[in-house]
Amino acid sequence: EALYEPSEWGVAPLRFQGGRLVAVGDGEAPQRRVIAAPFVSMTEGTGVVHVAPAFGADDFEIGKEEGLLFYQPVDLRGEMMGDSPFGGRFVKDADPLLLDDLEQRRLLLRRDTIHHTYPFCWRCDTPLLYYAKPSWYIRTTQVKERLLSGNDEIGWHPEHIKSGRFGDWLAHNIDWALSRERYWGTPLPLWRCGSCEHVECVGSLAELREMATDRRAAKALTDLHRPFVDAIELRCPACSGTMRRLPEVLDAWFDSGAMPYAQWHYPFE
Ligand SMILES: [Zn+2]
Ligand SMILES: [Zn+2]
């Protein structure tokens, strides 16, 4: 039995199915179970760890493998859901209240402070949360062999980088999480139709001007970065509906990686 049942707070449980998250059906009873995992050791702590697939990469992966439940009782401000008894509170401020609640229900074994490393925002020192949310990826794993054989042909200086830092990185390559949520940046060149959901990847400035609902505005646009480019709407080629740009920008490494090509204005000249 769970100490807290988020579905009582209006949090709908999801579960993994074929690598994707789907809603748990009405008649389907949420299940909790104990599983074995290599990232838990007997030499640290109790040897038992709570898995929360919405709040950590290991947790998410094991959730996907084992088909575990996925609960998201925290919003993007890091606050507990409004329906919970701790609703609207930042999670760290809710911690002592959660402990009080467990104590009152005689479910608390011990309360203590343990010092450990934790990520904080480098600008404002706010404690950060690992938070599972949808993102855009480039499936680099699909071209892994080409990347490795390409690396073999490169004359690296110093040479140890070839099979060392860079070769090792390519050998353990995972799909590139490409999108970032920022006010300013190189835009993800994707527009989605508001009527039929069709997504279009715009390949050039000429294409953007061609597809724009307001061609004059598209022609007048001199700065293609977000947020300026967001003003440009496109005509959907599938249904003639209005397409708006998806708000994400690109990982700045994309700009760095494109530099050798971009300096020659490839592939246009
Ligand atoms: Zn901050
Ligand atoms: Zn459409």
From TrEMBL:
Q: Can you give the residue ranges of the Aminoacyl-tRNA synthetase class Ia domain?
A: 129-269
What Pfam families does UniProt report for this protein, alphabetically? Answer: tRNA-synt_1 (PF00133)
Q: Which InterPro entries match?
A: aa-tRNA-synth_Ia, Ile-tRNA-ligase, Ile-tRNA-ligase_type2, Rossmann-like_a/b/a_fold, Val/Leu/Ile-tRNA-synth_edit
Q: EC number(s) per UniProt?
A: 6.1.1.5
Q: What is an example of a GO molecular function annotated in this UniProt entry? A: isoleucine-tRNA ligase activity
* Regions that span the bilayer: none
The record's keywords, sorted A to Z, are:
Aminoacyl-tRNA synthetase, ATP-binding, Ligase, Nucleotide-binding, Protein biosynthesis
Q: Which reaction does it catalyse?
A: tRNA(Ile) + L-isoleucine + ATP = L-isoleucyl-tRNA(Ile) + AMP + diphosphate
Gene3D superfamilies, per the entry:
HUPs, Valyl/Leucyl/Isoleucyl-tRNA synthetase, editing domain
Mind listing the GO biological process terms from this record?
isoleucyl-tRNA aminoacylation
What this protein is called in its record is: isoleucine--tRNA ligase
Native species of this protein?
marine sediment metagenome
